[in-house]
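Let's practice the habit of predicting before peeking. Look at the sequence and jot down your guess about where helices and strands might fall. Then scroll down.
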Amino acid sequence: MGLSNGLSDPNKKNMVVADCTKLLDTQVASMGGVSGLALKAGYAAVKGIAPSYCAEAIERLLPDSFTALDPIWSEGVQTGNPAEHLIQNRSRTADALLGITDAKIEKSRNTTVKGVYGKLRNSAKKHVEEAVPGLAKIIDNYTKS
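Done guessing? Here is the structure:
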């Protein structure tokens, strides 16, 4: 069973979205330096469009994201620890996730979101890689229950 199938229960999906939104908020809040300030400003701009925009975006991205992560997760199932496998392969994991967001943003009609994403995309992989352990924990938690 793939990740999308295992996490398709509506109640579980809502909890995954909530946990992923908290993870995103935490990751952004923890960023420092000039690039962190830029990312925080961009994140605030996106949230200013609509307070629920990020949670709604996560909800829309989940099915494709789980499909993209499924091959890496399945390899981890074979080794006995899929969450740790995602973490050990954080570069591949980040590339899989960014492939989904790149494709979605390309189709977006929201010029503000496209502009913010375009400005932040070059540093995105590093930030996504940093979030992989938290994401792996979330996925692991909900695939076990």
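How did you do? Helices lie at 3-6, 10-29, 33-49, 53-79, 82-88, 90-107, 111-144.
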